[in-house]
Specification:
alpha/beta, 318 residues, 10 helices, Spore Coat Polysaccharide Biosynthesis Protein SpsA, Chain A, 48% helix, eight-stranded mixed beta sheet, 2 domains
Length: 318
């Protein structure tokens, strides 16, 4: 199979049929073998009923329905596991991503041998305050943190080699930084392509102001994972050892100082009355905890991650 189109959605009943018709038109005109995977992330409208009807008419349409809303990352993760195409295309269901971009994206992956091509919506029609400004801020920070020179990490329109989506684990809200996850997994041929952005035709955006907080927290996480994700001991072990040594030598200095004063019959105080003793003790305890955190992190990395992070209620055309 040439292409798997993975489409996460939440309450997009107005646009599903139109998006399906548009994708099929592009696929048939280019003679691609394809499948379309809709992931219903807990919709409360008629989205799933529409997907079921499409699946009955067209075997290339597959679907996954979550019991509740788990988020875009979980939806993409489920879609990636089902995808069978040599090239996997992701796009949003709100018609803001243009299916006419698929042939060029497919060519870049199949014929130019890229691992991942990320869309860049150079001209946007979103609210500048709610989406444009946060996106520019997070994209700039992500470029600095990851070393990837991409302008739009969060663009829903992306193309991947099959090996990429089968190798990465998209969790939490890491869909914003999938290119970084791919890079960390060893896929280095990553680039971007300017794509057309279209104004939302139906409904309203599903993203609120919480994207400020979530984006910032995700950026911290991805920065840590990029540098220390595979070797947490390199961070926690180093900090823990330094803290412990500072506390240990401080305690040693306090004890030796008291012994010297006692030897020379000079007035002194109890070690437990010295506030620096408690500072040194606290430093040793914190150092031990940091070292233990790094050790536990290394153990966790060597155990299999629990893969079930969502509950699927229905599935079509396995």
């Amino acid at each position: 199979m040439d292409i798997s189109v993975v489409i996460p959605l939440l309450n997009e009943e107005e646009s599903i049929q139109e998006l399906y018709d548009w994708i099929v038109k592009v696929m048939q005109s280019n003679r691609y073998s394809f499948e379309i995977i809709f992931i219903d992330d807990g919709s409360t409208d008629n989205s799933w009923q529409i997907i079921e009807e499409l699946s009955k008419k067209d075997p290339s349409v597959k679907g996954i329905k979550f019991h509740i809303n788990y988020g875009k990352s979980q939806a993409l993760n489920a879609g990636f596991k089902m995808a069978a195409g040599d090239v996997v295309i992701t796009m949003d269901a709100d018609l803001q991503d243009n299916p006419e971009e698929i042939p060029e994206l497919f060519d870049l992956i199949r014929n130019k041998d890229y691992d991942l091509i990320s869309g860049w919506k150079k001209i946007r029609y979103d609210s500048k305050i709610r989406k444009n400004m946060p996106s520019k801020l997070f994209n700039a920070a992500a470029r600095k943190t990851s070393g990837l020179k991409l302008h739009d990490f969060n663009c829903g329109l992306k193309a991947y080699k099959k090996d990429v989506v089968k190798s990465i684990d998209v969790y939490g809200e890491m869909h914003r930084y999938i290119p970084v996850l791919a890079k960390n997994a060893g896929f280095t041929k990553i680039d971007e392509k300017v794509v057309q952005h279209q104004a939302r035709k139906y409904g309203t955006t599903k993203f609120g102001m919480d994207r400020f907080i979530n984006g910032f927290l995700d950026l911290i996480t991805i920065g840590f994972l990029t540098k220390f994700g595979k070797r947490p001991m390199h961070l926690f072990g180093l900090l823990g050892t330094l803290m412990f040594l500072i506390g240990f030598f401080s305690s040693l200095y306090i004890g030796i100082s008291k012994l010297i004063k006692l030897y020379h019959h000079k007035p002194t105080i109890l070690v437990t009355d010295n506030p620096w003793f408690y500072i040194a003790l606290t430093s040793m305890v914190i150092g031990s905890l940091l070292f233990l955190s790094g050790f536990l992190g290394e153990l966790i990395l060597r155990t299999k991650r629990d893969e079930k992070r969502y509950s699927i209620s229905k599935q079509l055309n396995l």
